[in-house]
């Protein structure tokens, strides 16, 4: 098991939906750090997590729960498909918890518009 802190943004794009417009699904962009603050990887669209040692995990959402903090993205349980040898090798599940921020903007939008909403979270990688 490895736990890493994430600090970054959730990127939302406005899309046409049901005859109007709405904020679409988020795409993450975050640095992953160890408890001592040392950056050891990054998190990006997929969702995918990649360590500096080249190990990587691609995830698929299994379940989610509302975050306890207001305006925070949901807590997630994801299945993981790991590749490479290193910190994230052998990961079978990823848990996103302790989220703060990152929720979709309230209100309307214009198709094509994007916004970056800051967030933090803890990601735990289980083998």
Plain-language structure description:
This protein has 127 residues and is mostly beta strands. The chain contains no helices and 9 strands. It has an 8-stranded antiparallel barrel. A hairpin with a 3-residue loop joins strand 4 (39-44) and strand 5 (48-51). The termini are close together. The model has no long low-confidence stretch (mean pLDDT 96).
Describe the protein's topology.
Layout: E1 2-17, E2 20-23, E3 27-33, E4 39-44, E5 48-51, E6 56-65, E7 75-83, E8 93-101, E9 114-126
Antiparallel strand pairs: 1-2, 1-3, 1-9, 3-4, 4-5, 5-6, 6-7, 7-8, 8-9
Structure in a nutshell:
With 127 residues, the chain is an all-beta fold. It has strands at 2-17, 20-23, 27-33, 39-44, 48-51, 56-65, 75-83, 93-101, 114-126. A hairpin with a 2-residue loop joins β1 (2-17) and β2 (20-23).
């Amino acid at each position: 098991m490895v736990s890493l802190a994430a600090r970054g943004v959730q990127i939302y794009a406005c899309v046409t939906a049901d005859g109007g417009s709405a904020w679409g699904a988020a795409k993450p962009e975050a640095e992953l750090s160890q408890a001592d603050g040392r950056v050891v990887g990054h998190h990006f669209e997929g969702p995918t997590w990649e360590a500096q040692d080249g190990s990587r995990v691609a995830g698929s959402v299994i379940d989610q729960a509302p975050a306890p903090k207001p305006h925070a993205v949901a807590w997630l349980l994801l299945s993981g498909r790991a590749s490479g040898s290193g910190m994230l090798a052998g990961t079978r599940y990823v848990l996103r918890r302790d989220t703060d921020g990152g929720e979709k903007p309230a209100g309307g939008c214009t198709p094509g518009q994007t916004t970056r909403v800051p967030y933090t979270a803890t990601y735990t990688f289980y083998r």
